[in-house]
Specification:
about 725 residues; 27 helices; alpha/beta; about 45% helix; single chain
């Protein structure tokens, strides 16, 4: 974990971090170059306890952010996305929600990853198109089965500077999109209108230190540039060959121009070429390489660091210029601009990662898919505007003679740390530095610090109770159990009846636990508890301990015993896989409870959590094998003798649900009438809800809800089979 220490004097940084960590509000974090946006991303990534993913619109941006591309994460289409219900719009030029969801080919782990996601961080959001954000929203709502919540209930952190380069949209694509969107910017996505993010702009500039230049850039951003501003900028126009100045970099619009300048300047240097080969290990897209796979250098070559110094001394930063001073025994020595002591370069490694869901830990894990190792430098007599985003330079030449796209002049100017370090090759005119009015209008939504503080306190209170509701939401446990029972109905193997009995017990226990959880949530949300932290903490601690014990005793231990009984039985292995999946769901819920922390209520994680190693193993001497069916017949005998199901269960030391399962089989044989076990009105209600005779119990249970048990459904179905046989 990187030890990122935030600037305690930067109140907006702290406020933004508090929003991300302790609320569920969406956030747009912006700021000029050098205000700490990248530092903020790294800080949140390292410090948040939420299941989080970092993604970006392009491969290079994703590698730099330590994340993945949005296209790979969500399988986004490369054509336009049409919002709304156009029902399968697929003319090979665009997708709509229906066609988008049909094309998804997520494996089970990817689905689980997105379902368990708490926080999605999108870096360089200025390059993200509105329709792609709506596509992401559509996918998250669908995969998370939460169609009415923006982003399916995931918190979004957008990071970027909208005054930099806009999203790319081809003319043909815009013809398709413009009936639906006011602009291609992410803030004009339909989902943003439903869930607008809080707008926070970091103000403190750590790189630009010349107030006059900062003021000029601010007026350019706000489209209020004055004639005096242009005069001061154009006073920085010089006519001279590039090589006449040291430690200066030229910003151009196109790769070919930058490559041409770098190649020409390198060729001019005397002496031999040195070649340094980078190494790609496993999977790493060459189009996303942060520097050349093969570096061509000479003594005296001007280079730029492309990473911050990871050492304690912080001798260089991303964008710092320097000169190759020595090359000895395949070692590179470099003299940073403005310094007297040279540095021996060390190779750095960039990772290509993939996110996966760890069900055992209930966490989002990073998996290394590949890596790229190379010296963290590149030739730097010239660089494109696009690649300069996020960097700052002490001395820069801006080649405005090229055809600059809207916004590029501002991006180029804002790369400089001071007016005195700026050199222009041609004059800048007001028409070339117009900021898009849509961006300025969106910037008006920025929140003041006092307002943010007030919102934060409200949102933190809401978020605490949201976390409590999520912790005791038993729907995933119920659904997983029901799905396992549904699969069991389709399998055939010896002793299936015994497994059905055990699964019926698990279903009964999870339903009972859900009733308790629902009652607890209702009580915890009462005004009296919400205003008394001590009472809330006591109730919360007791509830956590009670549910942990219930999961262990009523779910994990019985399921573990069932898995042990199925070991070595080949046909039963067809169902064992489902039980292993169910086991992971139970463990995930236990781990969530054991690790839960609520400082507001003085509730800490359980000091000595229960682990898998503590599960009892089935080492007991086997009892004499009972004749199959004897247990069921004994339950029948006692029932016909006039005992109630509860009395039979007590007398035999079995669960009520087990006795119900025993007796249900005799409905099919005619030895017991269904009405003796289930009231006729409930049987009719179950049969009325069934769409077909062979409909699975799990599907029917989902339709009927928690008011009806699996045994009641089974008995109703048996009664129907009896009357039709």
């Amino acid at each position: 974990m990187t030890n990122i220490i935030p600037d305690k004097s930067n109140s907006l940084f702290s406020l933004a971090a508090d929003f991300v960590r302790n609320t569920s509000r969406h956030l747009f974090l912006t700021g000029k170059a050098g205000t700490g946006k990248t530092t903020f991303l790294k800080y949140i990534k390292d410090q948040t306890e939420k299941n989080s993913i970092v993604a970006a619109p392009t491969g290079v941006a994703a590698i730099n952010a330590g994340g993945v591309t949005l296209h790979s994460l969500f399988q986004l289409p490369f054509g336009p996305f049409i919002p709304g219900e156009s029902r399968g719009f697929t003319d090979r030029k665009a997708n709509d929600p229906s066609s988008l969801l049909k094309q998804l080919r997520f494996n089970s782990n990817k689905r689980k990853l997105l379902q368990e996601l708490d926080l999605l961080i999108i870096d360089e959001v200025s390059m993200l198109r509105a329709d792609m954000l709506d596509a992401i929203d559509t996918i998250l709502r669908g995969v998370r089965r939460n169609p009415f919540a923006p982003f399916g209930g995931v918190q979004l952190l957008f990071i970027g500077d909208l005054y930099q380069l806009p999203p790319v949209v081809q003319a043909e694509e815009w013809q398709i999109l413009k009936p639906f969107y006011a602009s291609p910017y992410f803030f004009d996505a339909k989902v943003i209108a439903q869930a607008p993010p809080l707008y926070i702009e970091l103000k403190k500039i750590y790189r630009q230190n010349e107030q006059e230049f900062i003021d000029i850039l601010n007026r350019i951003r706000n489209n209020v540039v004055e004639a005096d501003d242009l005069a001061k900028l154009n006073d920085r126009r010089f006519d001279f060959p590039i090589s006449q100045r040291e430690n200066v970099i030229t910003l151009t619009t196109h790769n070919r121009k930058a490559d041409s300048i770098n190649a020409a300047e390198l060729q001019k240097l005397p002496g031999r070429f040195y070649q340094f080969n980078g190494q790609i290990n496993k999977e790493f897209n060459e189009s996303a390489l942060p520097t050349d796979l093969t570096l061509q250098l000479k003594l005296g070559a001007q280079v730029m660091f492309i990473r911050n110094d990871s050492g304690e001394n912080r001798r260089f930063f991303n964008g710092k210029l320097g000169t190759i001073s020595r090359i000895e025994n395949d070692k590179i020595f470099l003299l940073p601009a403005g310094e007297k002591d040279e540095i021996e370069l060390e190779k750095e490694t960039w990772l290509n990662i993939r996110y996966s869901y760890n069900s055992e830990k209930d966490s989002v894990d990073e998996e290394e898919m590949g890596s790229f190792t190379q010296y963290p430098i590149r030739l730097a007599w010239a660089i494109t505007i696009h690649k300069s985003q996020g960097l700052t330079f002490e001395n820069a030449i801006i080649d405005t003679g090229q055809a600059f796209a809207p916004g590029q002049v501002y991006v180029a100017l804002s790369r400089c740390t001071s007016l005195s370090g700026l050199s222009l090759l041609s004059n800048i005119y007001a028409s070339a530095i117009q900021t898009d009015p849509l961006v300025i209008a969106f910037a008006q939504k920025e929140h003041e610090a006092d307002e943010l503080t007030h919102i934060l306190e409200q949102e933190k209170s809401v978020y605490v109770f949201t976390r409590v509701r999520k912790l005791f939401d038993w729907n995933k446990v119920i659904t997983a159990t029901e799905e396992a029972i549904n699969v069991l109905e389709t399998k055939q193997f010896n002793n299936k009846a015994d497994v059905e009995e055990r699964m019926a017990v698990l279903s009964s226990k999870t339903t009972e636990q859900k009733h308790v959880a629902d009652r607890f949530i209702a009580q915890f949300m009462s005004p009296g508890i919400r205003t008394d932290n001590q009472a809330a903490g006591d109730r919360l601690s007791k509830a956590i301990n009670w549910f942990c014990k219930s999961i262990i005793d009523e779910l994990l231990i019985p399921l573990h015993e069932q898995l042990e009984l199925l070991e070595g039985k080949s046909r039963a292995q067809l169902f064992a896989g489902e039980l292993h999946d169910l086991n992971e769901v139970y463990w995930a819920r236990l781990n969530q409870l054991q690790s839960a922390s609520f400082p507001e209520f003085n509730v800490d994680p359980i000091a000595q959590p229960f682990t898998r190693q503590q599960l009892p193993t089935n080492k007991k001497t086997k009892k004499a094998k009972q004749v199959k069916g004897d247990s069921e017949k004994e339950s029948l005998r006692q029932f016909l003798a006039g005992q109630t199901i509860a009395e039979i269960a007590t007398a035999r030391g079995l669960n009520i649900s087990t006795i119900e399962t025993h007796l249900s089989r005799f409905v099919l044989s005619g030895e017991i009438e269904a009405e003796q076990l289930v009231p006729r009105a409930r049987i009719e209600a179950i049969l009325a809800a069934s769409s077909s005779d062979d409909e699975s119990s799990a599907v029917l249970k989902a339709r009927l809800g928690i008011d009806y048990s699996y045994n009641e459904i089974r008995i109703a179905k048996y009664s129907l089979k009896k009357t039709t046989s």
